[in-house]
Amino acid sequence: MAKYRKKPVVIDAERVATILYKAGNDWKALPDWVVKGYDEGELIFMSDAIIIKTLEGDMTAQKEDMLIMGISGELYPCKPDIFAKTYELVSDDDSIKLLHTHADINKKAIEIMKRFSRVEDYCTAENGGECPNRTIKISCLQCFIAECLKQAQKELEDSDA
Known about the structure:
By secondary structure, the protein is α+β, with helices and mostly antiparallel strands. It is built from six helices and six strands. The model is unreliable at 93-97 (pLDDT under 50).
């Protein structure tokens, strides 16, 4: 059986109890995506729950549940224990950087590799310098790939700054 890892994505979420409180006391404090879901009839507020109209049918989010807007704009409930195991808070602070996916890094590394006509053109050992991976027994090709991946990560992080 194959194993899969969840891709690092950022979602919007709010505790149902908080949504219900804001809906009853300060409508303007509700997140825009919740107001939109309500206006479009996808969310029905009850006194102790929210009914969510989905393609799979109606779902009920209890006060302790989290209401999530997924990456495609879909709305769904999540139990607090599952939410805590699956998600972590992302700060709005610009100093917090999101991790890039392996696909992002690999794509950038391929761009870097294409800058060189030969592996040896990149390797510092071939250019009279000292190979950064000389202490481990790897080929120039392995070294080249490792260095391009490191450079890709650095370039992506620099572009976030």
